[in-house]
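Appendix C reproduces, verbatim, an entry submitted by the partner laboratory led by Prof. M.T., so that reviewers can inspect both the input and the predicted structure.
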Amino acid sequence: MDNQTEVRKFILLGLSNLQGLQQFLFMLFLLLYLCSLLGNTAIMTVVVCEPRLHTPMYFFLCNLSCQDIFYSTVTIPKMLAGFLSGCQSISYTGCLSQLHFFHFLGSSEALLLAVMAYDRCVAICNPLRYTLIMSPWACLLLAAATWTAAFLHALMHTVMTSQLHFCGPNHIHHFFCDIKPVVRLACDSNQINLSLLNIITGSIVIGPFVFTLSSYLYIFSFLWMKVQSKEGRRKSFSTCVSHLTVVVLLYVPVIFNYVPPSSGSSPRQDMIATLMYNVVTSVLNPLIYTLRNVEVKCALKRRLFSRQLLVQKMFCLAACVG
């Protein structure tokens, strides 16, 4: 592969043509990245430290937060380095690595949201068997299957892209190495790569999306027909609102980006859609689950309040000793 590849590095043109905005973009994406890291790390810490949150729903939420941290890390640090240096370049190996991990983490999020929809469906529609169906081993198996399937999906695209011959030009019209802008630079025919993108990746997107919608249609019909009290319906539905919001934020730009024919989409539209589900959703997901989830908010308040008490006691102790 190395002997046949003449291009040794690529130039990322996605945001480099916005002259005069480099410092502003650096500060903006740095702030978004830090918010993503802090928010998702806070959720993971609270879920791990709070015994009351050791349930399947929060186990999958912890997986989602971990995934969001790595997902934004695939693209943003490289982008920030380019803003500082003024050169958005990436090596051939780095480009393939970025392509692989982006699709690995992106497809794992789509599959994970479908698993979370299944968890809510079982919890609401079959509560008596919930602990049996969603046992710890079942949760571990579902999480492992999600990460494994996503890794194999990304590996397929990485291997197929590595078989292409790149002899120039080496300018990628994107802010990272996505499949469509990369394979467009190949000197060989890229029809197989684009067909796999449309069929396999389209299935990874549409399949979990249809499953998630079907799960919530079943939940809504169950609540309407089986649950008579409005308060019971409200409590059951409140556990789904956060997840539904995250599903919409992810799937709308992803479907816009990957489901239409790959040859007819605009690079600028692809870049805007990718920024939405790669950067923005990683920042909003912790806020959504924090603001809409009473248990997470209470756990955060308890942790922060206990820390404040500890600091006050330390100051008082220091004052007494002094």
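Confidence is low (pLDDT under 50) at residues 316-322. Additional entries are available on request from the coordinating office.
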